[in-house]
Specification:
Elements lengths: L2 H9 L18 E2 L12 E2 L16 E5 L26 E5 L3 E2 L5 E2 L3 E2 L5 E2 L12 H13 L4 E7 L15 E5 H13 L7 H7 L11 H24 L28 E5 L2 E4 L34 E2 L9 H8 L4
Helix pairs in contact: 2-5, 3-5
GO molecular function, one term: metal ion binding
InterPro entries: Di-copper_centre_dom_sf (IPR008922), Tyrosinase/Hemocyanin (IPR050316), Tyrosinase_Cu-bd (IPR002227)
Protein name: Tyrosinase copper-binding domain-containing protein
């Protein structure tokens, strides 16, 4: 494989498709072990390792430490955002993991590492989805299907209404499946600040702090790594697969979506006011639309995940796929 092919592989890990630091500030949103501590005085999220039953995995893995965040000037209108200076609106003590240990309780290894001491390199091969055998493709579909109900281990905020988006004001949380978690976190990281009044929403609710920011590639890459690890747990427990990896879709030079059919991710089905649903013959036809966008002209809104009312829809905003020149241009950018 040439260097450019390797880069294409990395750049095209966009199939289907957090704010956290290597020191293991809370990944995703609220670990289920810590939900009862949210926003309490001296709120702590330092759970015990489920394997050795020691806080933060014990002194060889990590320790419970006070959270310090570098604060910069932020316009006053954004200070009420619960994502600001993450995750200090939720917790002030978290597990600080040593070396390559990782996780809410330092119970895991950082990505790319394995072994009892997280000091052995782990290699997972992500392959083009078009190159998977029939059995491999069916296994991938089964893992994705099970993710709808498989527990993620995290709770997410009830954002059905904007006045419940502040964790300091009568917060409500909901246990999330892997698929619900993925939908919620993707929306949570990308949505604007949630304001209660239409005036504030129209003035300040146009900002997208993830997709319109310089950190988008890093944020989305990390999001996919966590999601892939959750899917890996399903593959291991159900199929005994130890090296599961999410396949990629190479879009370079395409003139149309060549996996938007029932063999892969589902062909077009019926159309209603929500959009074009997946074909009834697709393995994913019953997937819930967890973060259904409200009808009308609302600008700032969260994930309406507490009331999934329809199945997922597909709507292409453009059919223009990047070509080799676009790829080379992107890779040659220095800043």
């Amino acid at each position: 494989m040439s260097k450019i092919d390797e880069l294409i592989t990395v750049c095209c890990l966009v199939l289907f498709g957090i704010v956290t630091l290597k020191t293991n500030h809370v990944t995703a949103l609220i670990p289920e072990q810590c939900a009862h501590n949210v926003s309490q005085p001296f709120s702590t999220c330092c759970p015990t390792d489920p394997f050795n039953h020691l806080v933060c995995g014990g002194p060889e893995r990590g320790s419970c430490q006070h959270l310090t965040i570098h604060r910069e000037y932020v316009p006053r209108v954004f200070l009420m955002d619960d994502r600001m200076f993450w995750p200090t609106r939720f917790f002030d003590h978290l597990c600080h993991c040593k070396d390559n240990f990782y996780g809410v309780a330092c119970e895991q290894c950082w990505f790319g590492w394995t072994g009892p001491h997280c000091d052995q390199r782990e290699i997972r091969i992500r392959r083009n989805i078009r190159s998977l055998s029939e059995d491999e493709l069916e296994l991938f579909k089964d893992v994705m299907y099970r993710s709808q109900t498989w527990p993620s281990g995290f709770w997410v905020l009830d954002e059905a209404t904007n006045n419940r988006s502040d964790p300091l004001f009568k917060p409500r949380f909901k246990s999330a499946s892997v698929q619900y978690w993925a939908a919620f976190i993707h929306r949570y990281g990308a949505r604007p600040t949630l304001y209660e009044t239409e005036e504030e929403c129209s003035r300040f609710g146009i900002l997208n702090f993830s997709h319109d920011g310089v950190t988008f590639p890093t944020w989305h890459r990390y999001f996919q790594l966590i999601w892939e690890r959750m899917l890996s747990k399903i593959a291991l427990e159900v199929h005994g697969i130890h090296n599961f990896a999410v396949p990629y879709w190479d879009v370079i030079g395409l003139e149309k979506c060549d996996i938007c059919n029932d063999e892969y991710v589902g062909g077009p089905g019926h159309t209603d006011r929500y959009g074009v649903h997946l074909s009834a013959n697709s393995a994913f036809t019953g997937f819930k639309e967890y973060c259904l966008e409200p009808e009308g002209d609302e600008v700032c809104f969260g994930c309406q995940g507490t009331k999934p009312t329809t199945t997922i829809t597909r709507q292409f905003l453009t059919n223009a796929f990047p070509n080799q020149e676009d790829l080379y241009f992107t890779l040659n950018l220095k800043e």
